[in-house]
Amino acid sequence: MGFQSAITIAEAVRKIQRRELVLPAIQRSFVWNDDQMCRLFDSILRGYPIGSFLSWKVQAETAGQFKFYDFMRDYHEKDRRHSQELDLPPGQAVTAVLDGQQRLTSLNMALRGSYASRVRYGRKDQAKSFPVRRLYLNVLGEAAENDRGMKYDFKMLAEPVKQPADGSAYWFPAYRLFGIEKFGSLMGVLASHGLGNNEHAVTIVGDLYAAIHSEPTLHFYEEASQDIDKVLDIFIRVNSGGTVLSQSDLLLSIATAQWDKRDARKEIQSLVDTLNGPDQRFWFSKDVVLKSGLMLTGVADVGFKVRNFNRDNMTRLEERWDEVSGALTTAAGLLADFGLSSATLTANSVLIPVAYYIRRRGLGESYRERPADRADRAALRSWVIRSLLKPGVWGSGLDTLLRELREVIQQHGEAGFPVAQLEARMAGRGKSLVFTPEEVEDLMAWQYGGSGTFAVLALLFPHVNTRNLHHVDHVFPRSLLTTPKLKRHRKYTEEELGEAIWYRDSLANLQLLEGPENIAKKDQLPEQWARATMSPEAYESFLQLNALPGLPASLDDYLGWCERRHHLLGQRLAKLLGTTWPGQEEQPANPLD
Predict the structure, then answer these.
(1) C-beta of residue 555 within 8 angstroms of C-beta of residue 480
(2) CB 3.0 to 4.6 Å from 76: which of 116, 325, 391, 496, for a disulfide?
(3) What's the half-sphere exposure (Cβ side, CA atoms, 13 Å) at 332?
């Protein structure tokens, strides 16, 4: 192993173009954003070193045993986020990049391709939300003062680019420089842009051209051994030294290399995409999927350690992949049925024991709707939500907790979700789901927009069918509760006004309404809305189910009403969590079934 002669950026990109430089299956997907790509080119134009690269010279006989991928050229966040697998001709040797993929992909993408990411607030189902952009450089001036440390003004811009009418900038297509093989042709290109007589533009474009075509700045350190175990060890040692690659990326590389009949990288990424799809609305990572694989296939130690990803364990995971992926998909669907999403699921790890329970009983998608399983789903829902609300359950000691949860479910989960046994074991690990009165008070202080607020409301109102999309709704419309509007209805002391504003977004003024119902409600006063949409019997039932102390027809009694409902909800939450609310007599623990 040793350093090769340095090559230019253009030479490296041409090697990628000819597929002489490829990506081994042990590499992860492209993860850099457009800002990182622009900063890379800023460093190149300034003459800064951009680091060395580690490659693996794969002989033809070895290359035929493994999977390789092409470098990404045209990235699209919605439609094309992963590199394509290469079908290498028999007998072809390649050079695989072990370290430097993100930089080389950025060079290839910026000089030969494009980058399309979703614009802020853009809808995911609309093509215009993902404009295709290419690399441009403002050749009339340097970058404005910024906190990214950039000197030159590189940007990824959608075409056609509109040049400022006042001549304050000119966006030159930097990607065109790759296709200009002779320096003499550069002046003609500059002239075609009306820049041939602009000294600053000629200088800056000429410097960038030289940095791409003339200066051998890329240094490759090449490993020639054909021993895959040695190569994997080098890859892990190189990439685990920093924080750029996650641990799951490194361990996924081993699974990918050891699966025989399936493409582990493709299968796992496809499952992640499914779990996070529009029906589920989550943001699970490869970490959760990989740890679930260890958990569901019975690996004794579920920790992210290289020894746990040995060939025997990975062979078992490959053989049982359909069962594992099916259980995870059903489990994610259940969490969605419970009303949870990426915005409200405060600990992704809760998916793992739920999936293990699904697989333990051999349950499928029908479990989510079958009437005979309604009580079991309610018990599972209660346990999930309370575990999310209790501080520290899914934090430190996670691997030990998961192993013990697996043992309990294996022993007692044959006929139903073993809530009592699980909670007893968790209490023994210092992760009790019994709440103190002080913890209930803390929960009652949670506010609108908090990640755990939906879970508290779902626990308070178990009658709500959270399979339907629900909004966290203000009982008294937020738009009516500004300081000026409150003052119009009564005289508040400074302290009372502060309380009234605090209650506005507190649990006392929140409820769960189905999306269309909440939209129709708009900013009506609660009593006006309820009387217009409900029969007298339904109105009384609505008050009782939602712990509402009546619904005033005006804001006159808003503060007093909030105080009464805060107390009612506190009592209900304390009862559900098996503890007491200030002013109540102490009661025995009676958690929600």
Answers:
(1) yes
(2) 116
(3) 26
How far is it, in rounded angstroms, from Cα 136 to Cα 353? 49
Q: Read off the amino acid at residue 108.
A: N
pLDDT by position in tens, the chain (length 593)? 567 899 999 999 999 999 999 998 767 678 899 999 999 999 999 999 998 999 999 998 888 767 788 999 999 998 888 888 888 888 888 999 988 999 999 999 999 999 999 998 888 888 899 999 999 999 999 998 887 889 999 999 999 999 999 989 999 999 999 999 888 899 999 999 999 999 999 999 999 999 999 999 999 999 888 877 677 777 767 765 543 445 566 677 677 767 888 888 889 989 999 999 876 578 898 889 999 999 999 999 998 876 788 778 898 999 999 999 999 999 999 998 888 888 778 899 999 999 999 999 999 999 999 999 999 999 999 999 899 988 889 988 999 999 999 999 999 999 999 999 999 999 999 999 988 899 889 889 889 988 778 888 888 887 776 656 667 889 988 888 888 888 887 788 889 889 989 999 999 999 888 767 767 777 888 888 888 888 989 889 888 888 899 888 888 888 889 999 999 999 988 888 888 887 554 444 434 33
pTM given for the model: 0.58
| SS3 call for 12 | helix
Output the six-digit token pair for 68.
């390789």
Beta strands in 168-324 (DSSP E): 171-173, 220-223
Q: Select from 530, 531, 473, 527 the least CA-distant residue to 504.
A: 473
Residue 260, φ and ψ in degrees, nearest 5: -100, -45
Distance CA 237, CA 370 (A): 49
Amino acid identity at 119: V
522: left (phi over 0), alpha (psi -120 to 50) or beta: left
Which residues, including other chains, have CB under 8 Å from residue 24's CB and lie 6 or more apart? 56, 58, 66, 67, 68, 69, 96, 97, 98
**Is 271:328 a contact under the CB 8 Å cutoff?**
yes
Which residues on adjacent β-strands are paired with residue 135? Answer: 156
Residue 541's contacts (CB-CB under 8 Å, 6 or more residues apart) are: none
Radius of gyration of the chain (CA): 30
Q: Report the sign of the C-alpha dihedral through residues 291, 294, 299, 304, in that order.
A: negative
Helices (H), 141-198: 184-192
